[in-house]
Structure formats: C-alpha cells, structure tokens
Amino acid sequence: MNAPAKILFVDRDGTLIVEPPDQQIDSYVKFRLVPGSISALRRCVDAGYELVMVSNQDGLGTASFPQDSFVGPQQLLLDILASEGITFREVLIDRHFASDHVATRKPGVGMVRHYLVDGVIDRARSAVIGDRDSDLELAANMGLRGFLICDGQGWPQIASALLDAPRRAQVERKTRETSISVAIDLDAAPRARISTGIGFFDHMLEQLAVHGGFAIELRCEGDLAVDEHHSVEDCALALGQTLRRALGERRGIARYGFDPSDLPQRNTGAIAFAVPMDESRADVVLDLSGRAGFVFSGSFPREAVGGLPCEMVPHFFHSLADALGATLHLRVVGSNAHHMIEACFKAMGRALRQAIRIESTQIPSSKGVLAGGAAA
Questions:
Q1: Nearest CA to 146 among 160, 134, 163, 164?
Q2: Do 111 and 225 belong together in one domain?
Q3: Is 362 within the bounds of a domain?
Q4: Is 364 helix (H, G, I), strand (E, B) or coil?
Q5: Containing domain of residue 126, as a range?
Q6: Do 137 and 267 lie in a common domain?
Q7: For the sheet containing 178-185, what is the strand order?
Q8: What residues are labeled active site?
Q9: Which DSSP letter does residue 4 get?
C-alpha cells in the first residue's frame, strides 16, 4: 500500500498567473507569472510534494469566455512549469458562476472529494495555496492548512513555511508504572532539561542531547521504589518515539551515523563512530532506516553506577532503537564502568548528530521511502 501523498492544492489566477483587472486571462497579452512561483514550486517538488491545480473559471465555455481563449494561456502555463520540472498530478477546473451554487465550485469540495478518502493524502503536510478567502475556506473544508498570496506573503515565504519549519515533536507516555513527557527540537541549539529521579541517568541523557546537537526536555515519574527498570526502559521508548516524530519522513537526512575517518585505523572492516573516554572506548554504527535492529558487544565490571544498573544500558539502547526505527550496533570496551557508559551515550549522540543532519532534499533511499518515514 502506498504512503499518503503530500499534495499542494494550488489556485491558478492570482496565485500562479497575475490576475488582470477584468479577472479573466483570455489572451497571451494578459499572461504574466506571479513572481517567485517557479523557484518556490521547484523547491516543493524537490521536497516530495505533488501538485493539483484547483481553479474556478467563471463561465468558461460561454460566449463571454470562449474555451479557445482559455486553452492557449493555460497550455503556456503548463509548458513553462513543465520545462522547470513542475508538473501537476491533476488539473481541476470548475466553469460555474457563484450564483449557480454548485458543490464543485470552490470553496466547495466537489472537485477534490476523491482526495478526502482516508489514506490518500498526508493531511498533516498537505495544504491549499491561493489568493482569496475562498481558498482558505476550501482548506478548512478539506481539513488542511491554507496559505494566501497577499501583501507581505509571497511564494518564497510560503515555501519556507512549508519546508523550513524546525523539526520538533512532543510525546507524553503514561502507564501504570511511569509518566513521561518528552519534547525535542532537532534544529535548536543543544540544551537538556532532564529529570528522571536517577541522577546518573539524567547525566547520560544530557550527554546524548549535547553531543547529538539538539534540544531536549524530558520528565519522568516512575516506580523507582520497585526498581529502575521501568523508568529507564520507558524513557528510551518515549525518547525514540519523539525522535521518530521529529524526523518525519526523514527527507534530506544523512541517515547514517559513523565516522569514516576512523576506517584506516580499524582492522575489523567496520565503520563506526568511536568515542574514547580515558581507558574506555565505545563504537556506534547507526542507520535511521526505519527498521529496528540492535547488536551489542561488551560487559561492565560493576553492577550499577550512580543508581543506574549497568544491565539497563544495552536495554536502553535496544528500546531506543526499537521506538526510533533504527539499526544500531554498539560496542564498548574498558575497565571503568562509569567511563564505559558515558562513552556509549556520547558516541550515540555523535552518531545521531551526523545521521539527522540535513544534506539534501531527497529521501536517502533507492526505494524513495524509508520504512519508518511516517510520523508515528
């Protein structure tokens, strides 16, 4: 089954073509593109959006607006846009007057009703773009965001609002054993506000955020009177789910987290993000593929550090990988458990920093989609 499509439902006159005073583009003399439309649409297409033109053309086909007068400028518009790689999934034109009171005329949804079937469009990311209140009303009727071409907001601003929004997410997770809230901003300056009731665990989660290069707030109230297991595991699950939502469809990310400069020094053939801490060293290989997988190698010389059982460290990363939809290989060696655990969290942070970095507009997969690309 195909994933829901990201679609921009775009008006024509006043949005793609400058609307003349008589509000009828029936000759080449009246044809002029709205400034910034081509570059903005190209950005949207490169980011995976499909386009549907939705336009009211009052009285098209009547004596006052002959079909032949419409066809030339319309085809010129389509040809110009196509030459820039901008094509339309569908062109929807309603010919009625407002006085006809038909459902197909905007803001009615008659022309776009087939897109409102569950699973056809990604409602969180799709939008309507136009230049009139009726376009905003259409957006409301479709349950989508709406953007107007108007004074102070042109195509560049709309494209930026669609494509340049910070990658943020919030998750609240409540069970009989824990109550957790997590907020993440992948594009904010690194900062961490952590409270789990386990001091050393708080410190480790701070390392994950600082070395990962993102902002995180995490609060956990757990049944620590029983033991630490539920709090550590559920924090990992909530954190992974929040990262997954913030990444969205994972378009443009580097996807892999490793340090290729480390390869010549390795005799194992693996490529890893290696972080040393005194006598200890942790190696991480990360793939934000959407497929969960975890491989761990190492043993700790103590049972616990600062209230955090050492056995919960690999369990934390396993749960994180499951909820995030990531393949994670983690190896740690050393003789000081504190150093070993801290190296694990720092190495994971550094690998995340590399993997979540935006470096293109494409989904980093030959399939064109990643298994965990939809926000959970």
A1: 134
A2: no
A3: no
A4: coil
A5: 7-163
A6: no
A7: 168-174, 178-185, 215-222, 191-195
A8: 11, 13
A9: P
